[in-house]
Specification:
Layout lengths: L3 H14 L13 E6 L10 H19 L3 E3 L10 H10 L3 H10 L4 H4 L5 H18 L17 H16 L3 E11 L4 E2 L5 E3 L5 E13 L2 E9 L10 E4 L4 E9 L2 E8 H7 L5 E9 L7 E3 L6 E6 L12 E3 L5 H12 L1 H6 L4 H5 L7 E2 L7 H9 L7 H18 L1 E2 L9 H15 L2 E7 L5 E2 L6 E12 L3 H13 L1 E3 L4 H10 L2 E3 L1 E2 L6 E2 L2 E6 L8 H14 L8 H9 L4 H11 L3 H14 L4 E5 L3 H15 L8 E5 L2 E3 L2 E2 L10 H8 L1 H11 L6 E3 L1 H21 L11 H22 L3 H22 L6 H18 L4 H10 L21 H23 L7 E5 L3 H13 L2 H8 L3 H5 L1 H13 L10 H16 L2 E4 L18 E4 L1
Parallel strand pairs: 1-2, 1-25, 8-13, 20-26, 25-26, 27-29, 30-31
Antiparallel strand pairs: 3-4, 3-19, 5-18, 6-7, 6-17, 8-14, 9-10, 9-11, 12-13, 15-16, 19-21, 22-24, 23-24, 27-28, 30-32
The structure holds one RNA strand of 88 nucleotides.
Length: 958
RNA sequence: GCGGGGGUUGCCGAGCCUGGCCAAAGGCGCGGGAUUUAGGGUCCCGUCCCGUAGGGGUUCCGGGGUUCAAAUCCCCGCCCCCGCACCA
């Protein structure tokens, strides 16, 4: 067995030692600059990530072989709060976290406990990731390695510069924003900060302030609703008699009012820009039977009891619109049936009896009161039928929103979805409405174990992706970019339109502080948008040990935005202490490498990082430095299951490499899927591929012993070389478009299969022509495989006596003299003939047959076929053919043949010498079929001769 | 709700943009054969239905339509997946 690991490590070391992948400026070569989204290192990379990083490496290697000066750098993203969170959880000995890090990521215990400090987590996984990438054989220029955050000051200064410039351009704005919030710990909660409720939505309730006058005091009952337009159909109010309500003084800005809301709502609203002072607590029943005024219509409506009202949802105050809200209708029905309850609150049952529903919306398929109809349809019995009522509500809301037409002035005739906005706007303007954010589900629990609330944050910094001029520039850049796969362009376009203000800083986690407001730390999606430019100067920064404080904004301005100027370099040098030659070097590198040719990442980054990447480039850089292409890839699953570190269902990239070898892993991942489709890792297939690669290795090792002599080749040799040409062409075209799977099919499988056929076809031959052919194939095959399996390709390249590294060898191009379509057709012809003979034997049950007689098409049939192929039409072909007197003699036969050919649309015809092909392959056909083959005998056996057609000889088996 | 993408033969998955050599690549699975003491591996053959001569029939979510011709184009419907932000 081949020791892949030893081979791989040998070449990895050589590449590093000889700095094969650390390109210098070389004006003689075209440059090619490709980057991939750097990994966020909260753990080991798994085989799903492997795809994202292997693709750019394969492309980088391909382009390098094509003669480009290729830059493929790498860095590490450590910005944000997850790493800090992990450190905290390790400190608190959280069992789940310890399981993941000790058992899934296999961190040794003595190191694990140092993870209480996030810096140690970062250090550990950066080292591990680098080792993994080296072991994967990635052709990365490690001289440009860096990591984000203030832990790496030069980069941090670069980010500060970016934000200063964005702010100058007015693209950073301050504002308010709501966040999920832990009210006990006092911190915003991201998705990863929740143990429950990650996908609970935040709803935007409109509060309509109904007026209660009591002893000449005005109180507001803010009814919470998602459908403000139904305020025109309110017949009564609902409070839960059992729930606790409060009277509170509510200060909002300079406005002060007295509200009646549930106790819970008072608490929640205190996080939403409301200063709340509770004056009195009481049960809801206290207010039942009182009358309040609808602030929009001026109607006086009565407060009635309803148990469906949840004090822990929104304000606990609900307006009743029975015509259009199934819950309201059901609750009204309930109290009509149960007059006792009304008497208890001293309400005259006739009042309830006389409530008449107000129809607001015209809805096709329903009468006046859709809520009533829908409730009946679903068989609602009382307000306790919560499930049915929720379904009915959903149906009605959806139908009315999309198809309903409002029928009350001043909105008569307008669609409901418009009226909804208009009513809300109007109420806000009149000061009779307010707003409240609420979760769509109560169970939102932070990782600290507390129930989350929604808090409105002030002084939040945003990047204003909603800026219309900025959007226009982003669209312009996108239009000029290549997007792979092209089908994803629509999504980019939609996201550019959709993006609006994006909060760009927070108060927790690792990162770069905002230079003008250092309490805030720039968050991770905002500090990773233009770092591809930093890579171009990173080599010099690392090499000369340039300090963060030396990198003042003017230095970046000069390097990235301005024209070459010795004067400026001198000035900056004096100011910063960076030698002016070094400033020059950085500037030259940036100008040489930029613009970025390709940005790679997994498809999940399209709605955020990749689009931000476009936006920030067009904001900061000159047009000639705007990026040129984005290629996205899909994800990976493991044996059909989604990879999940918390369930332990992951295969670490490094473990896969150690188990199978880097080349096997690389080729396997590249062969499974391409572009944005996903792949599934199956262990059994990996094992199989390993064997095939071993076979590849053995074959080339064998062919390396052969000599490429200039001898006369046989047709089948020429066939193989023609097929090799096809493989070169196919693989090259596929790689140009990042189609790795197609490329592997050409570069590996098609050659493997052709070789199998060739070996079968040349069994027994061991002449110089065969050896020369195989030797030529080997030479090309190794190079075609080099981007995918670089290590064994290097090893085999040496065996073949290739010069230098195969990584730097010339990518093969099709050899003009090898193209030979005719021979390929002849070979297909032989294959088809063998298949036909075999089929005849089975279908006609001729297992004991001895001989097959083959009749090729007569010359006149070929001539007719050629004419038909040219004319593609019965009449035209017929008149052409009939010019020939010989043909006229066969008038009827010819006419029939033309008819048949036209009907079959047999217009793609290329002449081959059938008989020659048959005679050359005779022995082979006999071996394959086990029959004696007689070619074009005089005797018309079985009367088959007339069936012969061009490319389809007549066959008689006996 | 808004937005993006899909539904192909047992499965995965090409092909569909640029209609026709498409019963539909390739792989997996399954069946048969060769090699082998056996297993594994490797190599051949088969794998929608029918067929004693290489043929015929019915397919590409459902329903319409365009066309000499549709998996491929158009319309309607059904179903599925993904993203929606301060989070990497």
């Amino acid at each position: 067995m081949v020791d892949f690991k030893a081979i791989e490590e040998k070449w990895q070391q050589k590449w590093l030692e000889e700095k094969v992948f650390e390109p210098q400026i070389d004006e003689k070569k075209p440059k090619f600059y490709i980057t991939v989204a750097f990994p966020y290192l909260s753990g080991h990379l798994h085989v799903g990530h492997a795809r994202t990083y292997t693709i750019p490496d394969v492309i980088a290697r391909f382009k390098r072989m094509q003669g480009y000066n290729v830059l493929f750098p790498m860095a590490w993203h450590i910005t944000g709060s997850p790493i800090v969170g992990i450190a905290e959880r390790i400190k608190h000995r959280d069992p789940q976290t310890i399981y993941v890090y000790r058992d899934v990521y296999k961190v040794p215990e003595d190191i694990l406990w140092t993870f209480e400090d996030p810096v140690n987590i970062v250090k550990y996984f950066m080292k591990a990731a680098k080792e993994t990438f080296i072991r994967a054989g990635f052709s990365v220029d490690w001289s440009r390695e860096f990591h984000t955050t203030s832990l790496f000051p030069p980069f941090s200064k670069f980010i500060e510069w970016q934000f200063l410039r964005l702010k100058e351009k007015g693209l950073i704005v301050k504002g308010t924003h709501y966040v999920r919030w832990d009210p006990v710990v006092g911190t915003p909660l991201g998705d990863h900060d929740l143990i429950e409720g990650e996908d609970v939505q935040i709803l935007d309730y409109i509060l309509i302030k109904f007026v209660l006058e009591e002893n000449s005091e005005v109180y507001y009952l803010p009814a919470a609703t998602l459908r403000p337009e139904t305020v025109y159909g309110v017949t009564n109010m609902w409070l839960n008699p059992e729930a606790t309500y409060v009277k509170a003084r509510v200060k909002s800005g300079d406005k002060e009012e007295k509200w009646i809301i549930s106790k819970e709502a008072a608490y929640k609203l205190s996080f939403q820009d409301k200063d709340i002072e509770v004056l009195e607590e009481f049960k809801g029943e206290k207010l039942i039977g009182k009358w309040v005024k609808n602030p929009v219509t001026g109607d006086e409506v009565i407060i009635l009891p309803a148990e469906f009202v949840d004090p822990d949802n929104a304000t606990g105050v609900v307006m009743s619109v029975p015509a259009h809200a199934p819950f309201d209708h059901a609750a009204l029905e309930d109290i009509k049936k149960n007059t006792e309850i009304l008497l208890k609150y001293d309400i005259d049952p006739r009042i309830v009896e006389n409530i008449s529903y107000i129809s607001l919306i015209e809805l096709e398929g329903y009468g006046e009161f859709p809520a009533v109809e829908e409730s009946e349809k679903l068989g609602v019995k009382s307000q306790k039928d919560v499930e049915k009522l929720e379904q009915a509500t959903k149906n009605i809301y959806k139908a009315e929103y999309h198809k309903g037409v409002f029928k009350i002035e001043p909105y008569k005739g307008k669609p409901v979805n418009e009226v909804k906005e208009l009513v809300a706007k109007d109420m806000f303007e009149k000061g009779i409405a307010d707003r409240m954010y609420e979760f769509s589900d109560k169970n939102v629990i932070s990782r600290f174990g507390n129930r989350a609330v929604i808090k409105i944050i002030h002084d939040q910094w945003f990047i204003d992706y909603g800026n219309p001029e900025w959007k226009a520039k982003a669209r312009e850049a996108l239009a000029q970019m290549k997007i792979l796969p092209e089908s994803r362009r629509a999504q980019f376009e939609a996201i550019i339109e959709w993006l609006d203000k994006k909060a760009c800083a927070r108060k927790v986690g690792l990162g770069t502080p905002l230079p003008w407001d250092p309490e805030w730390v720039i968050e991770s999606l905002s500090d990773s948008t233009i770092y591809m430019a930093y890579y171009t100067i990173s080599r010099a920064v690392n090499k000369y040990g340039i300090k963060g404080e030396q990198l003042i904004p003017e230095v970046f301005d000069y390097i990235f935005l301005e024209n070459f100027s010795e004067e400026k370099e001198k000035q900056l040098s004096e100011k910063t202490g960076i030698p002016k030659e070094v400033i020059r070097e950085m500037k030259e590198e940036f100008e040489y490498w930029y613009p970025l040719d390709w940005r790679c990442s997994a498809k999940d980054l399209i709605p955020n990082h990749l689009t931000f990447f476009i936006f920030n480039h067009v904001a900061i850089f000159r047009k000639e430095h705007w990026p040129k292409g984005i290629a996205v890839n899909g994800f990976g699953t493991l044996e059909g299951q989604k990879m999940s570190k918390s369930k332990g269902n992951v295969l670490n990239f490094i473990d896969a490499i150690e188990e199978n070898g880097a080349d096997v892993v690389r080729l396997y991942i590249m062969s499974l899927a391409e572009h944005d489709s996903d792949f599934d890792w199956k262990r059994s297939e990996v094992g199989k591929l390993r064997k095939q690669i071993e076979r590849f290795y053995e074959l080339i090792t064998e062919f390396a012993k052969y000599e490429d002599k200039d001898v006369e080749l046989m047709d089948i040799d020429k066939w193989l070389l023609h097929r090799v040409n096809k493989a070169i062409k196919g693989a090259t075209e596929a790689l140009e478009e990042f189609r790795t799977r197609t490329a592997v099919q050409w570069a590996f499988y098609s050659i493997l299969n052709d070789l199998r056929w060739y070996m079968r076809r040349t069994e027994g031959r061991n002449d110089e022509a065969k050896r020369a052919t195989l030797r030529r194939l080997a030479d090309i095959w190794v190079r075609l495989m080099a981007p995918f399996t670089p290590h064994i390709a290097e090893e085999l390249w040496t065996k073949l006596g290739g010069e230098g590294f195969v990584s730097l060898a010339k990518w093969p191009e099709p050899v003009e003299e090898w193209w030979n379509k005719t021979i390929e057709l002849e070979e297909d012809y032989i294959k088809a003939l063998i298949d036909d003979i075999k089929e005849i034997i089975t279908v006609a049950k001729l297992e004991n047959a001895k001989r097959a007689y083959i009749y090729t098409a007569e010359e006149w049939k070929w001539r007719v076929a050629e004419i038909v192929a040219e004319k593609k039409d019965f009449k035209a072909a017929m008149s052409e053919v009939m010019k020939d007197p010989e043909m006229r003699k066969r008038g009827k036969e010819v006419s029939k043949l033309i008819q048949k050919l036209v009907k079959e649309r047999a217009f793609e015809l290329k002449r081959i010498d059938e008989e020659k092909a048959l005679r050359q392959a005779k022995a082979f056909i006999e071996r394959e079929t086990g029959l004696e083959i007689i070619i074009n005998p005089e005797e018309d056996k079985g009367g088959k001769k007339k069936q012969a057609m061009p490319m389809k000889p007549a066959i008689f088996v006996e």
